[in-house]
Known about the structure:
Chain A is of the alpha+beta class. Chain A contains three helices and six strands, in the order H-H-E-E-E-H-E-E-E. In chain A, strands 1, 2, 3, 4, 5 and 6 form a six-stranded mixed β-sheet that branches.
Amino acid sequence: MTPEEKVFEKLRNVLIADTTINDYVEGRVYLDHPSTIKEPKYPAISFSIIQSAPGISVVTQASIEIQIDIWLDSNKYTTEDLLTIQGRVRALLHRQNLSDTTIDNLIVQQILEVLVGPVMYEDDTDLLHLPIRYSMVAI
Amino acid sequence: MPVRGTEVVAKNIIRYGGNFTKHVNKVMKEVSVIMDNQITKNMSLTEPSLKGLKLLGHPYARRHGPKGIQIHDPYWQVHKRSGDLLSSKERGTTDASITFGALKAGAFVKLDDKKAEHAKYIIFGTSKMIPRPLLIGSLNQIKNKAFGVLKTNLRDLTMRFVAR
């Protein structure tokens, strides 16, 4: 597995295990963008790689920046719900130890929330969208 | 590892007096111009046209993959259409200050989504369109050049400065 694949699997496991988040998304933490999924359902969380560069000290190390997108149906949810989920994601990921020997000896040396994007509304899909960027070094 | 030469740096900063932060601001302004030029270049593509993009099957649609159909390199470059996005671009610096021995200074380029609402959709993507990290991508392209400017101007100032 690549460091990116290992990180995505770990993040998905961590987010789904959280009761608050899972009460919203009901297991829908997509490892790819919703548009690549046939008939995606919402609420959902998805991951995208923004940039990834090989590490300098270890061959298998990667410096990764990802975007975690929170998607909610605006007919049922509000900005407050988006921020509730973002707060839980931050509590679970920011500066946390996410190393996991059960996922191909994943080592996450540091993970930081670097940016919380604007709350966005898509009028063609009625979706509320909050992007969050995380950077990390992983092996 | 011991840090050597700090006395020389401290003495030179004291000798330089209030003009030191002015000099830092000048250097940071230079850095902001470097960033601005690169970002402008990366958001000024003119080809293909809107019609051409449609014929290509909407290359920025996420269904084509995490980088869309890569019709240009880097994939996150942006086209100039109405010019609103370019007009929304602002650059500046945050005034340099020294607090408890730590120098703080900053340079920035930003897009104002009050002037171009679609800026945020381009940068962060939508449920159908890939995010295009124009700002951070451009910053990565010029970071060595920007560090060079900082290193040359600030190291030389503090290590080699001779008070007049």
